[in-house]
Amino acid sequence: MRTRKSIVDFQRPFTLNRDVGELPPGRYAIEIDEEEIQATDWTAYHRVAIYFYVQTVGSTRTIIINPADLDSALERDLDPKLGTACGPGN
Description:
This protein is mainly β. About 15% of the residues lie in helices and about 50% in strands. It has one domain (about 1-70).
């Protein structure tokens, strides 16, 4: 198991999944837990969990999300035709 740290940027309000309400646009820190997949001549990693950090004045909320939820939210953010929780074109 390994953990990588990264930053994701959202240009519009977004949702990650049904359990998490709408979040504002901005930069968010994430940590990605990856499981090692070994073969005889190569090694790869499979994402198993993402820790998504939402910072507000005086506190940080940690949300554990499925990697597919983050991929979906980022895709919707890049393509306005897919819409957000606020509706298409936002």
